[in-house]
Design goal:
Elements lengths: L3 E4 L2 E3 L2 E3 L4 E2 L3 E2 L4 E3 L2 E4 L3 E4 L7 H9 L9 E3 L5 H4 L2 H7 L4 E4 L4 H8 L5 E3 L5 E3 L4 E6 L9 E5 L4 E3 L25 H12 L3 H11 L6 E2 L11 H12 L4 E8 L5 H15 L4 E5 L5 H10 E7 L2 E2 L2 E2 L1 H12 L6 E8 L5 H12 L2 E9 L4 H19 L5
Parallel strand pairs: 8-9, 9-10, 10-11, 15-16, 17-18, 17-19, 19-22, 22-23
Antiparallel strand pairs: 1-2, 2-7, 3-6, 4-5, 7-8, 12-13, 13-14, 14-15, 20-21
Helix pairs in contact: 5-9, 6-7, 8-12, 9-10
Bound molecules: MU-OXO-diiron.
MU-OXO-diiron (FEO) binds next to helix 2.
Length: 397
């Protein structure tokens, strides 16, 4: 895309990645992702964050549109994950005089990841660097996303560079700023990024928001996705809501099914939710990638899981989803369970134990043998209605 000035003397010099299929080797990228790096130019120049290693030449070309890369005085490493730090070794070779600035916790990582130990300086929380006309201030925000993470704030132009925080999936399609797009078209990919990548660290996200809230911020410039200059408060509110496990008064039904018995019950469950006029989304865990399932579970307060018994336990796609939701520490869900079994149960019982361990509110659980009978369909519909009433805060008729 080339360099783009986001405030006087501050430039986006990142790249769009539409070639990587899986972020972190795990999460699909149907719309790509951007690695946002920023050049802050005063009398001295600082590059804030970087890109994945094999995009370094594109980063350098973008920087060269503003100034010769050899003129960079500081490489600010807010976060060591290689989607941002991968370009650091090459940059250090090109600009050996540049100082690498990072938290103390990042220094052993710089050495282990890239063999970099010379020309490195640890910055403390609250430290500043005067670039001449621009001043960078550093805030430690551990575990957003890794323990060494920090955010950088440019005081003259009031720009916050929070790295992974406030980022989202989706490459920048010719646009850069929130006020250039319809945000509602981006929110799903921002939430998928939040829930997949930083959701596990929701408490750290809330601590970071608290830590940074006194700052006067004109622009939030994260390291993935849109740059927020029209309404920076909007992305902070979204992140705070998701980190607090606040969700829509709606229901997600996620099921797995081998021969259609549990799938048919899922339809009856969804029917029950709809009967109470609560919005419902139904998804097949065997066919929808778990990345999207996690997002949908994060989005709605009600979660009804259906899985047949398989190898005396939970049907694997639903078990995998539950495991990841545990690891992402999703909280505050109102839950129903259902599933078929052949000759003895297992799935619903194991799901019940897992849900109770998670501290979710279990409304009811329905296990049934073989193909669902009319009575089973009635029980499934009643399950949907009961969860929907709890989610909506209404009383059952
Ligand atoms: Fe975008 Fe945790 O790296």
């Amino acid at each position: 895309m080339g360099a783009r000035e986001i405030r006087p003397g501050i430039y986006w010099v990142g790249v769009n990645d539409r070639a990587t299929d899986l972020f972190e080797g795990l999460w699909p990228l149907p719309h790509g992702v951007s690695y946002n790096a920023y050049l802050v130019v005063g009398k001295k120049a600082a590059l804030i964050d970087g890109v994945k290693a094999h995009f370094t030449e594109e980063l350098l070309a973008n920087i060269a549109e503003v100034l010769p890369p050899e003129r960079i005085d500081y490489l600010v490493v807010n976060h060591m994950e290689p989607d941002h730090s991968g370009s650091v070794p090459h940059l250090c070779r090109i600009v050996p005089r540049a100082k690498v600035l990072a938290t103390q916790a990042a220094l052993p990582m710089l050495e282990r990841f890239y063999g970099i130990s010379e020309g490195v300086r640890a910055v403390a929380d609250g430290d500043t660097i005067d670039l001449g006309g621009k001043v960078l201030k550093f805030f430690h925000v551990p575990f957003v996303h890794w323990p060494e993470t920090m955010a950088t704030y440019e005081e003259a132009q009031k720009v916050l560079f929070p790295c992974d925080a406030f980022g989202g999936f989706r490459a920048l399609g010719g646009v850069l700023f929130d006020d250039e797009v319809d945000i509602s078209e981006y929110e799903d990919e921002i939430l998928r990024y939040f829930s997949n990548i930083v959701g596990m660290q929701s408490k750290a996200v809330l601590r970071a928001i608290e830590r940074l809230k006194g700052l006067e911020v004109a622009v939030i410039a994260p390291s993935h996705g849109l740059v927020w200059r029209g309404d920076p408060g909007h992305i902070v509110k979204l992140y705070a809501r998701w980190a607090q496990m606040d969700a829509a008064p709606e229901v997600t039904v996620i099921f797995g099914s081998m021969y259609g018995f549990t799938a048919r019950m899922a339809e009856a469950v969804a029917r029950g939710v709809a009967e109470v006029s609560v919005p419902v989304r139904i998804l097949d865990a065997g066919r929808v990638h778990v990345s999207f399932l996690i997002r949908e579970a994060w989005k709605r307060r009600g979660l009804i899981l259906g899985a047949p018994t398989y190898d005396a336990g939970i049907f694997p796609p639903v078990e995998y989803l539950l495991r990841l939701l545990e690891r992402k520490r999703l909280g505050g869900r109102i839950v129903g369970l259902f599933g078929s079994y052949g000759w003895r149960g297992g799935s619903v019982e194991v799901m019940r134990e897992r849900v109770e361990a998670l501290g979710w509110e279990l409304v009811d659980a329905v296990a049934f043998p073989g193909a669902p009978t009319p009575r089973d369909f009635s029980r499934a519909q009643a399950l949907g209605e009961a969860v929907a009433h709890r989610v909506a805060g209404t009383a059952a008729a």
